[in-house]
Description:
The protein is an alpha+beta fold. It is built from 16 helices and 21 strands. Strands 1, 2, 3, 4, 5, 8 and 9 form a 7-stranded antiparallel sheet that branches. The protein has a 5-stranded antiparallel sheet with strand order 11-10-14-13-12. Strands 16-18-19-21-20 form a 5-stranded mixed sheet. β18 and β19 form a beta hairpin. It starts with a helix and ends with a helix.
Amino acid sequence: MKNVWQLLMKDENKGIRTFVRNLLMVFVIAFLVVFVGVVITLNKYKEVEKKAYKEVVEAVMTTKLENIQKDVKSATSDLMMLAESGNLRKFWDDKAGTIEDLKAEFLNLSFHHDVFDQVRLIDEEGIEIIRVNYDLVRPVIIPEAKLQNKKDRYYFYDSFKLNRNEVFISPLDLNVENGKIEQPLKPMLRFATPVFDNQNVKKGVIVLNYYGQNIINEFENKNNPLIKDHLMFLNSEGYWFKGQDADNDWGFMYKDRLNLTFRNEYGEVWDSITTSDHSQFETKQGLFTSKTVYPIPEILVPNGSSKMTNLNYYHWKIVSFVPFDVLNEKNKERWNIASFILIILSISWMFIFYRLAKIQHLKIQSQEALMEREDSLHKLNATKDKLFSIIAHDLINPFNSIIGFSTMLNQQMKLKDYDGIEEYAEIIQNSSNRAMDLLSNLLEWSRLQSGRIAFNPSQCDFNRMVTDTILLLQDSAQAKSITITNELHSNFSVFVHKEMIKTVLRNLITNAIKFTRPKGEIIVSAHQSDDEIIIKVCDNGIGIPSEHLSKLFQVSETYSSLGTAQEKGTGLGLPLCKDFIDMHKGRIWVESEVGKGSCFIFSLPLSKLDAK
Length: 612
């Protein structure tokens, strides 16, 4: 281009018309070359951007689907754990002697898993035997005089027909009290399964009322900015649980909203979504992506419960809809810029080259941003895979022990050979406790990572928190003849999230019991230093090798060893403690010497200002 321009300038023998004609020809050719280049570049941008949209939508929806399935699986696991409880089996033979233990077990589940509105045991006549209600503050056991007959409720009728290890899951809907939808709205799922006595006779059902809002919240937390406000959650009939317009949500619960369905809004698009478990396609309206959630685990699908017999019948749909104008918003902006550049081209050559260089610079920045986003997703997946690997390895061992020794115990009971059954029962109990610890810590850790734990600190009596935790773990300590001493002599008032700090205390004292020899001692002490309180949980147990101290609070490099009674750790307790302490702007560390014991130390703020 430069050489042609110089040639034209030197052509002094040609007339003005030739000069203008040649200059116009050069301008037209240059304009066409630049115009073609701009068109190609913008189309490439459009393809890259659309691909990025599709990949991001897929990644976000996959994560949300996995989180929903994990929540439902956790609830069904809690249900089956209660159904196979040893206390529950004993209850049918000795109701008066075991009722209090069974109530305590139900209360403990509701306390540690605050996702259940109600936990109930109903006998074969439909009469509630035990009911624990969660009143948004703490679980409460309902007095016998207020228990009700639920024989006419569909969830009792459908679940009582099931066989062992079959689960009834109700539709996700709004809670109704006295014929009216409860306000504020309370989405609810009911999980139920039949229970049997030691003679395998069906005696009733266990029902868990699960807060459905936990599932709905998956669509309001941590959405990628590219698809923010474009996600929808629907039932199998196309009604919204959560949509882009809140007025359309829960339409099937209201007589005057029965016409508010996805089909009525988007027409034949619903037919394309319902014909496959996963789809992604474009229409004149925009980009649609859908995934199907099957909340009932396949191994627990009921065989004879009315509508629940078909796994395909009971499902939900996650749908992302990015409108055409939103999908092409940036592309239109780029075209406006390009048009402006082409106009300026006729005025100034230098401005053309400047604009082209700027466009290329913007392209490189866009590609780098995409690469950084992909790298971030790879790192997140690597962390997730590492965590699940730890969980799978640690969780399978206690269940193998439970299954193996319970099988041996069952065989010996049939043969009336009672030698060693106490040892087998103790092994089963220890394995169950370990599995419960792992699941409890995993639940807390996952709720923390997914942002479902709200950080709400308040002024608390720390001495009372320590005392309550020691009482909770006293039985475990006495089983090993271990003394737990509370050396707090002052009433420290700390500004903390109470349940988080109680979880920290519970994990540290449980670890101390695990690694302290019989007849050992654990001391809990605290002192004030400047504007913080320093808390120590010390034992005279086996200690920790110095080379392993740096691994204790990391999920990616989990260190766990056997306790003095061959107890196994979960690998998640200490990382969970560190996350909770970090949220309080505190510190946590350990001092240990092999053979002499360990001291786990953490700090907490004394004032509101320090906790913010």
